[in-house]
Description:
Helix content: over 70%
Radius of gyration: 20 Å
Distance between the termini: 82 Å
Amino acid sequence: MKTASKAPLSRDDAADLETRILDAALVQFSKVGVKKSTIEDVARQAGVDRVTVYRRVGSRDDLVQAVISREVATLLAQLAAMPEHHDSIEGLVADVFVTVVTRWRTHAMVERMLAIEPERVIMKLTVDGATTFTMCVAATASTLERAVQRGLLADTDDLMTRAEIVCRIVHSLVLAPHGTAPLRSDDELAAFAHRYLVPVVTGARG
């Protein structure tokens, strides 16, 4: 007698299951970091078995990358709407900069990992982070293109390069937050953006 096989998940059910797993991984990594977390821990948190985690997402490193990529994508979607709320490029650049730096500074998972296993964060955002960085540059360039369309920024053929320079600066500040520039408050971050990032974005020459 044949055993009835499980019906395949619908696309929506599969997406919901993956979301549940990533949510569980985010909670787990935020609590104890990645090194002390196992696939079993994430599976238990998500209410599934470990095979399901492997099948839907992959290994622990795959989970870390998937969680980071999802968090980055969520933030970039928020940034994409910002040009509609500003009447000047200075205000837009400052808003984007303050939002990005503050979001990563206060992100529970990033805080935990930087505190107990910074080498893993550095690897994920540098050597293994090409895809994530490319996403950031493309999204920043898209934001600048929208600023051009709204008349906030003069059109130019090197928007992608300007976007990449800004992303590299932000990337560095996230990975190495301690320096000589006072960047603790939103006002200090905004002042930094006005003085140093706006000229990069606008192509202003001193």
